Structures are given as structure tokens and as C-alpha cells.
Amino acid sequence: MHLDEERMMGEGKIKFAFFVAAVGITLTVLGVGTEFWVELAPSKGFHNNQTCLAAHHGLWKSCTKMLWVADVDPERESCGPLDLPGESNCTFFKFYTTGENTVLFQKTPAKNLTVMSAMLAIFGLFLMLMGAVCIIMAISKGVQFFLKPASVCFTLSGVLVFLSLIVFHQSVLSFLASDHTIPLHYELSWSVTCVGCAGAMLVVAGASFLLLALPYSPWEKCPPCRNNDS
């Protein structure tokens, strides 16, 4: 009876850690699939006195949005924010389709860095899938061995997600430095927040699976006591 209770408690801990990992996977998919990684905005008077142009992009597509200057906060110098009403136009990056580079505000995105950031995110998603399969096998078959490869998969996927964010930020800086004709204000958006939280949750889940795979609890194990009287 005692062994059954311990086994049920162990499965409960595994399921909870898997829930944390599943939330991380969901946030990663949400972030990777959206175009709100970075928001770009020139000054309000860049286009004309009535409308201004703002943009945002992710790993796959870039979008421009025409906003009314009257809707922009008078104290704000740049065009935006993007949640204001306006007409949007989104297109895939040309280097994914025709191989050409994209020009936005007379600047060109860093093709190699953008592609590398996307590939890191995709490879991270593949490792998440492998880790999920391992956990499903561990729960359904009751085999603790699958916890260790799951731990490696989730931890590495979290690291790859963080690397994807770092490379993407470098691509944004390279994009801004490609031309100084039009000064732009940039701000990392909510998709980056989703992916960053996902990376942290995946690393925590990976570490949890590693601890659960140990034959003993590191908090309960203590060195043998010595009898000073002997």
C-alpha cells in the first residue's frame, strides 16, 4: 500500500512538471507563429501630417500599419502604438519565398540572423515534441528511464529558445544599423515575452524531470551520521 501511494505521488509530480512543459510549448508555438516580436516606428511626421506608418515583424512575416496622427498620443514622438485602429498589410519575408531581401523604412533585415533565429526556434520545437513523447511513454508505461531523455530535450529546447531570442535581438540591431536615413524607435513586443516565459518554463520542467529521475530525493538524502561517542 505504501509503495502504491509513493508511485501515485511520483506520477502526480511527473504530470505537474509535464503541465509546466506543456504551457511552455504552447507559449512557444504562440510566439513563433505571430508577427509581434518587434515594433518599429518612425516619427509621427515621417509620412504626412494626417497619417503615419508603423511596422512590426516576427520570424516569418513583416507587417506595416497606417495610423491616424490624430489618434496618436500628442506627447508621443513616434508613430504608434500598434493597437490603434488602422489599415494593416502583412507579407512574408522575401528571402523565404523568392530569395530576395526585404526593404523596410529603407533598411534591410539581416537575412542570416533572422533565418538562424527561426531555425533555432524550430529545432527547439522539435526537441519539445521529443520530450513530450518521452513523458507520455514514462506515464503510460511506468518506465522512469524516459524521464532523463525528456529532461535533456526540454532543457535544451529552453536554451535554444533563449538563443533564438538573443539572435533575433541582434538581427534587429543589425537592421537598424543598415541605414540611418530614417531614425526608428524599436520595442520588443509581446511575442518575445511569450517566448521568453516559455524558455524559462521549459528549463524548469527539464530540471524537474531530472530530479524526478534520480533514485532518491536530493532534499531527503543526507550524509550518514557519525557517532561521536564511539
TrEMBL record:
Gene Ontology cellular component annotations, sorted alphabetically: L-type voltage-gated calcium channel complex
GO terms under biological process:
calcium ion transport; regulation of calcium ion transmembrane transport via high voltage-gated calcium channel
Is Lipid metabolism one of the keywords?
no
A Pfam short name: Claudin_2
The subcellular location is: Membrane
Carries keyword Transmembrane? yes
Say where the protein is mainly found.
Answer: membrane
User: What name goes with this protein?
Assistant: Voltage-dependent calcium channel gamma-6 subunit
In its UniProt entry, the species of origin is given as Pygocentrus nattereri (Red-bellied piranha)
What is this organism's lineage? Eukaryota, Metazoa, Chordata, Craniata, Vertebrata
